């Protein structure tokens, strides 16, 4: 199990080690990442659709997702509030006159769910069991992590500056610690070994990663739970960022987790001003690295 976890992590660090200068190649990498995400999510849905007793397990999955979302939300908000009280963040005036395009962002947030649903319907109604699906998902995930490593390295960001951003580093640590504390509270609720629950709590909004990694280790039902938990984090973050960022920017930026450096960044920028952007990028970047590392480590303990 430990060897498998390291194999999953190796492409991420390999990609991060490579510097690219060709803009056209970087554009190809960007579109490849987008396509791979939806392909992997469709494979996750396919595994769910072909799972024995799917309909009987749906109510249990809904309960597990609800428990994860609620406990993680409360714990994350508490941890980020404590960090906000300890290190209050200076912020620009809100850019209220700039429309962040909420409808477009919410529709974009629904796309991953639609990709999974297409896979579920195909697996449940159309396709016979495919023996190579798990291997295909694993190799696709490794390629995705390699390409994401390339993107992170070539995003024009200095790792040293990101690590020296005290607010971004503090937000990332507050979210990580509070998520693991929530995972500890959820161990008796989810009835899984402690290390598996902590792996579930370490997705930080990265649904394309958590769904496949957890699904391969714990089965398609838990992969679906991990996916829905992290998709809902992203959607909730879009709703609460404009409400919280004026008074408590650390809480608004932090709850989005890894998405703060990409998907929720436009809302953070438009609602909180330019001063919030480097903090959001730093925290999202660090959480994007911590998420696969923590999931791999915890799952390797099984």
Automatic annotation (TrEMBL):
One protein family per Pfam: Lys_export
Keyword annotations: Membrane, Transmembrane, Transmembrane helix
One GO cellular component term: plasma membrane
Coiled coil region boundaries: none
The keyword Membrane is annotated on this UniProt entry: yes
Organism annotation: Marinobacter salinus
Classification via PANTHER family: LYSINE EXPORTER LYSO
Gene Ontology MF terms: L-lysine efflux transmembrane transporter activity
Protein name: Lysine exporter LysO family protein
Spans traversing the lipid bilayer: 61-84, 105-127, 139-157, 169-192, 204-228, 235-257, 277-301
């Amino acid at each position: 199990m430990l060897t498998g976890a390291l194999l999953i992590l190796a492409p991420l660090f390999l990609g991060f080690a490579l510097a690219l200068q060709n803009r056209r190649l970087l554009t190809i990498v960007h579109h490849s990442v987008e396509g791979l995400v939806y392909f992997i999510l469709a494979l996750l849905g396919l595994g769910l659709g072909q799972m024995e007793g799917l309909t009987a397990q749906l109510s249990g999955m809904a309960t597990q997702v609800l428990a994860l979302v609620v406990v993680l939300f409360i714990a994350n908000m508490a941890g980020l509030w404590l960090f906000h009280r300890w290190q209050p963040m200076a912020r620009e005036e809100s850019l209220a006159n700039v429309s962040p395009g909420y409808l477009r962002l919410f529709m974009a947030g629904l796309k991953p769910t639609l990709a999974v649903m297409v896979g579920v319907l195909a697996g449940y109604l159309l396709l016979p069991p495919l023996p190579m699906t798990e291997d295909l998902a694993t190799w696709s995930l490794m390629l995705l992590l390699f390409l994401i490593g390339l993107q992170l390295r070539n995003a024009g960001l200095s790792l040293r500056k990101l690590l020296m951003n005290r607010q971004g580093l503090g937000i990332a640590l507050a979210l990580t610690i509070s998520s693991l504390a929530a995972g500890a509270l959820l161990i008796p609720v989810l009835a899984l070994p402690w290390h598996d629950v902590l792996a579930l709590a370490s997705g930080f909004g990265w649904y394309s990663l958590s769904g496949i990694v957890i699904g391969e280790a714990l089965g398609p039902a838990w992969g679906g739970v991990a996916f829905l938990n992290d998709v809902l984090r992203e959607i909730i973050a879009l709703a609460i960022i404009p409400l919280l960022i004026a008074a408590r920017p650390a809480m608004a930026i932090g709850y989005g987790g890894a998405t703060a450096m990409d998907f929720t960044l436009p809302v953070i920028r438009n609602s909180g001003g330019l001063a919030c952007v480097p903090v959001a990028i730093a925290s999202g970047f660090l959480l994007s690295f911590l998420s696969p590392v923590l999931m791999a480590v915890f799952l390797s303990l099984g």
